[in-house]
Design brief:
binds zinc ion; 212 residues; single chain; binds D-xylitol-5-phosphate; 7 helices; alpha/beta
Length: 212
């Protein structure tokens, strides 16, 4: 079963963005994950649309934006203008359905993100409307957290029904998580501090291990 590895650029060294992208590219990054926050939907800020535009100039690989904002509609024109390929919207944020409609009308991929405490049943009505579903393994907003209790059972419940390629995991995705869930048909993994950044090994070595 093939799966995608998507480094989370909020964890990269932004002062060396070009070198970081070159190393990640050579290491086999399939796409790049860009976290955009508004300080309200989550109590933090991360990357900006200016960062996304800078990344767009440095790579041809797909860019996925994860919008952790109260009003995602406000952000869509920026996403379209800077050429991102996949836009993840939280089901818990305002205007989810309208955002998905606009994203697909624009010919981009729409992803749904669920916070750890959001019941899976709430996703049901929208599953056929989206290209991907991302389950957060942590409360969104910060890198470097531990997975929330009970998350493995929740992923298993979803993967049993809709795993094949659609499901993405974000937050505390370490090597053991990739190893376990790639075998269950999880389609993509967001790589932050748990798997890739701030380690003593090269990206190429770490990513080669994750692929095995
Ligand atoms: C969390 C972010 C992730 C984060 C995950 O809200 O969406 O992209 O970087 O990486 P970890 O948890 O491994 O540091
Ligand atoms: Zn994210």
């Amino acid at each position: 079963m093939s799966f995608l590895l998507s480094p989370s650029l909020m964890c990269a060294d932004l002062g060396r963005l070009r070198e970081e992208i070159l190393s990640l590219e050579a290491a086999g990054a399939d796409s790049y994950h860009i976290d955009i926050m508004d300080g309200e939907f989550v109590p933090n800020f991360a990357l900006s649309w200016a960062d996304a535009a800078a990344v767009r100039k440095l790579t041809k690989r797909p860019l996925e934006v994860h919008l952790m904002v109260k009003n995602p509609l406000l952000h869509l024109p920026y996403a379209f203008a800077c050429g991102v390929d996949i836009i993840f919207i939280h089901l818990e944020s305002g205007s989810f359905a309208e955002c998905v409609r606009r994203i697909r009308a624009e010919g981009r991929e729409a992803g749904m993100v669920l916070n750890p405490e959001t019941p899976l049943e709430e996703a049901e009505d929208f599953l056929d409307e989206v290209d991907r579903v991302m389950l957060m393994r942590v409360k969104p907003g910060f890198a470097g957290q531990s997975a929330v209790p009970g998350i493995e059972e929740r992923i298993a419940a979803f993967a049993a029904r809709r795993g094949q390629g659609v499901l993405c995991l974000d937050g505390n995705v370490g090597p053991d998580v990739v190893k376990k869930w790639k075998a269950q048909g999880v389609g993509s993994f967001v790589l932050g501090t748990s798997a890739l950044f701030g380690k003593q090994k090269l990206y190429a070595e770490l990513m080669a291990d994750l692929r095995q």
